[in-house]
Write a structure and sequence with these properties.
About 35% of the residues lie in helices and about 20% in strands. It is an alpha/beta fold. Strands 5-4-3-2-1-14-15 form a 7-stranded mixed sheet, covered by helices on one side. Helix 1 runs parallel beside helix 2 and helix 13 packs across helix 15. The protein starts with a strand and ends in a 30-residue tail after the last helix.
């Protein structure tokens, strides 16, 4: 018995029901032309993922239902190909995360997701009722069980499908990317294969949706857990899989990416889709001559093209000449529009305006430093207002963690590209990106090698008031991403003074982070959907 399946790795747009249906139909036409008997689409492909509170609107659910029927009627013209579509389903007052097999112009069978994730970035128990029954459909003589994403992360749903007679498991997924996630998926699916003896076909969503990026990387595992087919990451694809006599035949194998290549591709896709899906004509970046804005600029150009990116250098009296030189050089290498708008006159004007009302007028402290950042934010937002282009902020995760960012200053903007990128990873990504263009690296070497500085006062460096970034980032990862206690972190060999300082700064900076733009998540825990700490909070970690 032979079954040819096409896995549609689709970049769906949340709420674009007609557009998503058109995409599914297009993939179905290509699959049918290649001889596939089944097209497998990702989780909630019809409405996009995650639809969040759209699912609370009865009119949205009704529109999804109508679109599914219209899609079924359209697919009937393709002949005998069956299409498995992920969609929300309202039934008897309950909303389900469902997958329906369309064939012959009608709904043949529907499966409802049984395990609803409610951790990290997931909030499905807010919206969905869990299903409780296995669903097995026969296609080209092969009995296929259906699971949806979280169903396969624990024992239960896959085993019930096998007990109901399934000999092949089809899994629809909207599994967002973070570092090491592709390997985790493979490990989890091998557990299901070992428990059931069934081969598995895994279809994953691709594309950017607000802070989430879905990397695709759809795949097929044979009955012994061997990887037989793999789609590329971070790109739409149609992966063809042949199952013959219970075995998956070897097929397309996209090469794996390095961690740096994965993260960089996630950032590029996140920027491209955030601006593209929301209709922004381009991006504006405050270019400082430092490494964070340099990496952000490189990502933006790779995502959008140089013609849609504008760099603005806003030097102050504290800006070093090498910062100006390096910013000019990078803009020239990448071919973006580059403007210089000095802020010395604005600094003097603000100083004069504030002198009568500031206590201790004439004292230079963070007040004056923050005014500089806010002047720059004001200028960038003025350019954004006039052009419609979106300001991309350039703050990294290390800065967001400890509050080394200015409200209404360097935090001003619409999308925080490297918000989940620790400073040490910023350096790794910059080296990686330069290595991809060895004859003309986009980031001048001096930007990477010089000590990082905000340049808000003379001879300033980041390490004047922070531990070395290797130490800072390790503490932040342990405390914030892995929930380790200060005592555990100190026991690993980190100085108590450094741990105390970082944990305190993390705690008191929460009010700033709540006001930061949405940014791309690439770690298992970013400062976004999966970080929900109270601003008003008197708990103190024991040391």
């Amino acid at each position: 018995m032979t079954l040819s399946v096409a896995i549609a790795q689709i970049n769906a747009v949340v709420g674009d029901l007609a557009g998503n249906a058109e995409r599914i139909a297009g993939f179905a036409e290509s699959a049918r032309a290649a001889g596939a008997a089944l097209l497998l689409t990702p989780e909630l492909a019809l409405c996009g993922y995650p639809p969040e509170d759209l699912l609370l609107r009865p009119d949205f659910l009704a529109a999804c239902d109508d679109e599914l029927d219209a899609l079924a009627a359209r697919l009937a013209a393709l002949g005998d190909i069956a299409v498995m579509v992920g969609h929300p389903l309202l039934r008897d007052g309950h909303c389900y995360n469902a997958a329906t097999l369309l064939a012959g112009g009608r709904r043949v069978a529907t499966y409802c997701k049984q395990s609803l994730p409610n951790a990290q970035v997931f909030d499905e128990q807010r919206y969905f009722t869990p299903g409780d029954a296995a669903c097995v459909v026969t296609i080209a003589g092969v009995r296929c069980g259906i699971n949806i994403c979280e169903d396969v992360w624990d024992a239960g749903a896959a085993e019930r499908a096998h007990a109901a007679g399934a000999e092949l498991l089809l899994v629809l997924n909207a599994s967002p990317y973070h570092l090491n996630k592709p390997a985790q998926r493979g490990d989890v699916l091998r557990e299901r294969v070992a428990a059931t003896g069934m081969p598995v076909l895994y279809a994953n969503l691709v594309g950017g949706q607000d802070e989430l990026v879905f990397d695709g990387a759809s795949f097929a595992l044979d009955a012994d857990g061997t990887l037989r087919c793999a789609a590329p990451q971070f790109a739409e694809a149609l992966l063809f899989v042949t199952v013959r006599d219970g075995r998956v035949l070897p097929g397309e194998m996209a090469p794996p990416l390095s961690p740096e290549a994965e993260v960089y591709a996630a950032l590029v896709l996140g920027v491209r889709d955030y601006l593209g899906k929301n209709g922004f004509p381009g991006a504006i970046i405050g270019l400082s001559g430092g490494i964070d804005s340099a990496l952000t600029l490189a990502i933006a150009v790779d995502a959008l093209g140089a013609e849609r990116v504008r760099a603005v250098m806003m030097p102050s009296p504290f800006t070093a000449q090498i910062s100006l030189d390096d910013a000019r050089a990078m803009a020239q290498i990448l071919g973006v529009r580059y403007d210089e708008v000095p802020i010395a006159a604005a600094m003097q004007t603000f100083a004069g305006m504030l002198a009568p009302v500031l206590d201790a007028a004439g004292t230079n402290d963070t007040t004056e430093e923050n005014v500089q950042a806010r002047i720059r934010g004001l200028l960038l937002m003025a350019l954004s207002n006039r052009s419609g282009a979106l300001v991309l902020t350039t703050g990294n995760k290390s800065e967001m963690a400890v509050g080394y960012c200015t409200l209404y200053g360097d935090m001003a903007g619409g999308f925080a590209v490297i918000k989940d990128i620790a400073k040490t990873l910023v350096y790794r990504l910059s080296h990686w990106r330069n290595a991809q263009s060895p004859d003309r690296p986009p980031i001048p070497e001096r930007i990477i090698t010089r000590p990082p500085s905000a340049e808000l006062k003379p001879d300033q460096t980041d390490q004047d008031s922070l531990p070395p970034y290797e130490v800072l980032d390790a503490i932040v990862e342990a405390y914030m991403e892995n929930d380790q206690s200060p005592r555990e972190i100190i026991a690993r060999g980190y100085a108590e003074a450094d741990v105390r300082r970082v944990v305190r700064l993390l705690r008191i900076s929460e009010y700033k982070r709540r006001q930061s733009p949405v940014g791309i998540r690439v770690t298992q825990r970013g400062f976004g959907k999966d970080w929900r700490y109270p601003i008003t909070n008197r708990y103190r970690d024991p040391f």
